[in-house]
Design a protein that fits this description.
Length: 196
């Protein structure tokens, strides 16, 4: 379970019915033992609950802020995922020309803040070129992890390039290239926010 480093900036407002005006929990993805910061602003009497459920490779902690009035209440929820030492990133592919795949996504600092990379492994049978955090490296099929991005944030833009394998034919349902490329990222959690 994450440590509750409760940097709680709470403002309780008087007025009509209860209302959650602001509720933030950051970061939203963490390694075990990483603290989270909680900020909220409510109208009414505040109350917080914390519930945790486990999954393979990760736990999810749900933070619920409740604002209570005389006969009514309002609530808002945020989830924080606590990961094991590695996480699989999934990227949707598109064609780049007639013989290559491209996949790209930007992982937000809000979701991945405080998490840095230990090593990256191509989780597929094909080699690929990976661009992230101003670095470009080739991950060869069947080889071990690369440490080119050690200490870099998980957050930010990721771009993957890969050639088609023998027998893959765009537009042919039976031999179509994969819809996704996968990377396994070994995590090295820091205490600060990630920079993208």
């Amino acid at each position: 379970m994450p440590r509750l480093h409760l940097t709680i900036a709470a403002l309780v407002l008087a007025g009509c019915g209860p209302k959650i005006q602001q509720f933030d929990v950051t970061p939203r993805r963490i390694c075990a033992g990483t603290p989270v910061s909680i900020t909220f602003k409510v109208r009414g009497e505040p109350h917080m609950t914390v519930a945790r459920r486990g999954d393979h490779g990760s736990d999810t902690t749900t933070y619920t802020i409740v604002a209570r009035g005389r006969s009514d209440s309002a609530y808002s929820r945020m989830e924080v995922i606590t990961f094991a030492s590695a996480q699989t990133l999934v990227f949707s592919t598109g064609m780049l020309g007639i013989d290559s795949l491209i996949a790209a996504d930007t992982l937000s600092s809000e979701a991945w803040g405080g998490m840095t990379i230990d090593q990256v492994t191509a989780d597929s049978a094909r080699g690929m070129v990976v661009i992230h955090a101003g670095k470009t490296a080739t991950l060869k099929a069947g080889t071990g992890a690369q440490s080119d991005w050690h200490g870099q944030p998980v957050a930010g833009r990721w771009e993957l390039h890969a050639g088609l394998l023998h027998g893959e034919v765009p537009g042919n349902p039976a031999h179509h290239p994969p819809a996704h490329l996968y990377l396994t990222v070994g995590l090295a959690c820091g205490t600060g926010e990630a920079h993208s």
